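User: I'm new to structure prediction. If I give you an amino acid sequence, what do you actually give back? Let's try with this one:
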Amino acid sequence: MKFRWLLALLVELWPYWCVIPCLSFILVVAIPKLRQQSARLSIATLILILIVAPVINWVGLPQLGSTPDGMRVMAYNIWIDNPNTDAIAQSIQGEDPDILFLSEVSKPMMAELQSRLSYPHDYRTEGSNNALFSRYPILEATTNDFGVTTKGRTFSLVAKLQVEGNPVTIIGIHPPVPIIPGFFHIRNRQLDTFAKASQSIEGKLIVLGDFNATPWSPYFQRFERISQLQNSGHRQWIWATWYFNQTLTTRYIKIPLDHIETRGFTVLKTWTGQTGGSDHKPIVTVLEPT
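Assistant: Good question. You get back a string of structure tokens that encode the predicted 3D arrangement of the chain. For your 290 residues, that looks like this:
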């Protein structure tokens, strides 16, 4: 289909389309003449449920109580044009993750963060702008494009950590923004490739980063279905991780693009942190090995 990518982009904004059936339902209920027509009221109710249900299923209920103990993991797109190193460092230090994956990290920014953050182990990808900071030993780390690239840049960081005596594989990803057909198809091929690759990896696995896909994307849903990974943000009251660099055209666009997918862990709690001058909020989760 010629405009498949455009339709898919509209699906990414699914919560905003919920406004239409909500308003229609309110009109049907508010206008006596319409309210008396049971067929129209029933249809309006059914449409409202069908449209809103996917959003409610994702968001869930607020997670109350204190933050539990466990392994804290954070994925954070710091935005390549963000010059505010102090704010970035404060956002990270405020969450104090044990494992930190960053997207859009330039070489100068990497050097700055290495001097400001107290992590004994780190790695930055070659040919792209992803980075990993860890309190756990990094046994190995590589830059792997999984055979899918855009303009020669790779978007994937693959590492194996030693976590309390057990190996944990980390795949940090950042597919391209699907705003043009070419990038749309590359993102989808990358998600399919990551899903298949995760099946071949044994043991505990964490795939995290800026997926540039919402939970309502059929391509993201296919990724989760094939990979059989658990999304740590599911039903954790995560409304949005992007767009928080306020401009007139994007002020009201707020969708969840950043995810932490796991296998071999129980998700104890997940939340979003401070932007630190980025257009993304970091997503933070506390995990417990199963």
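You can read the tokens as a compact description of the fold. Here is one thing that stands out. The two ends are 43 Å apart (CA to CA).
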